[in-house]
Amino acid sequence: MKDITTDELEKVLETTHPHKAGEFLKQNEDAMYAEASAFPEYMRGKIKEKGMLQQTVFLAADIPERYGYKLLSGEKRTRQRDIILRLCYAADFTLDEVQKALRLYPFPELYAKFPRDALLMIAFNEHPGDIIDVNAFLKENNAEVLRSSGVQE
């Protein structure tokens, strides 16, 4: 995959005429994600880049290992945004990396005007410990804790 940033692609798109759309896609296909594989590719790449093992991430996220592997292979999908947030937190993602993972899944990004999301943004910026500590922080501030993967959808 080419190392072209999203910003660079967007800049080119600003001046790309509709009749040149096919040409743009062809020239940049190596820099783009196939929709179905975007999230799994991104997550596996980031976990590897951080020198972590998937198994360690699943344990830290308190997600069953088998279920985690299925999520990161694209074999399974979840309707629970909290599962993705748990994986991102356990993999020590920055807030920007979390927002990208949520976009790729696709789930809504964390939004500063929603109190629970604001608290989660603080947690991702500061990394105050493990998932249990994050849930304690949320609870202290009267917000719903990050749900676990009890129901695997």
Describe the model.
With 153 residues, the chain is mostly helical. The chain has one domain. Helix content is 59%, strand content 0%. Helix 4 crosses helix 6 and helix 6 (81-90) runs antiparallel to helix 7 (95-104). It is globular, with a radius of gyration of 17 Å. It starts with 5 loop residues before the first helix and ends in a 13-residue tail after the last helix. The mean pLDDT is 91.
List keywords for this structure.
153 residues; mainly alpha; globular
Uncertain spans? none
Q: What string gives the helices and strands in order? A: HHHHHHHHH
**Outline:** globular
Count every beta strand, where a strand is a DSSP E run of 2 or more residues: 0
| Helix fraction bin | 55-70%
Radius of gyration over all CA atoms, rounded? 17 Å
Instruction: State the distance separating the first and last CA atoms.
Output: 31 Å
- Class by alpha and beta content: mainly alpha
Largest sheet: none
Integer tally of domains: 1
Query: How many individual helices?
Result: 9
User: Strand percentage, roughly?
Assistant: under 5%
What is the average of the pLDDT values? 91
Quickly describe the structure.
The protein has 153 residues and is mostly helical. The protein is 59% helix and 0% strand.
Which secondary structure elements does this structure contain, and how are they paired or packed?
Blueprint: H1 6-14, H2 21-27, H3 35-49, H4 54-61, H5 65-73, H6 81-90, H7 95-104, H8 115-126, H9 131-140
